[in-house]
Amino acid sequence: MAALFIDSKYQGKGYGKELINFIKEKRKNIQLKVYKKNDEAVNFYLRNGFVKKEELLDEQTAFNGCAVERQSFTLW
């Protein structure tokens, strides 16, 4: 999966959590990156069993962020 987006009018209804749980059932390890300043996304992954792994700097955009794995993620 390249990205996870939930339309704002459907956020907070459990759809994102359902998608993450489905992926967890299918994959042992999950890696992802999330923009560090996207507090809602960072907190979503923290609430769903992920932990921060490392902080990165995206060389193309110069944004700081984080990478995420099944039990960890990295900020960029």
From TrEMBL:
<keyword id="KW-0012">Acyltransferase</keyword>
<dbReference type="InterPro" id="IPR000182">
    <property type="entry name" value="GNAT_dom"/>
</dbReference>
<dbReference type="Pfam" id="PF13508">
    <property type="entry name" value="Acetyltransf_7"/>
</dbReference>
<dbReference type="GO" id="GO:0016747">
    <property type="term" value="F:acyltransferase activity, transferring groups other than amino-acyl groups"/>
</dbReference>
<protein>
    <submittedName>
        <fullName>GNAT family N-acetyltransferase</fullName>
        <ecNumber>2.3.1.-</ecNumber>
    </submittedName>
</protein>
<feature type="domain" description="N-acetyltransferase">
    <location>
        <begin position="1"/>
        <end position="76"/>
    </location>
</feature>
<keyword id="KW-0808">Transferase</keyword>
<dbReference type="InterPro" id="IPR016181">
    <property type="entry name" value="Acyl_CoA_acyltransferase"/>
</dbReference>
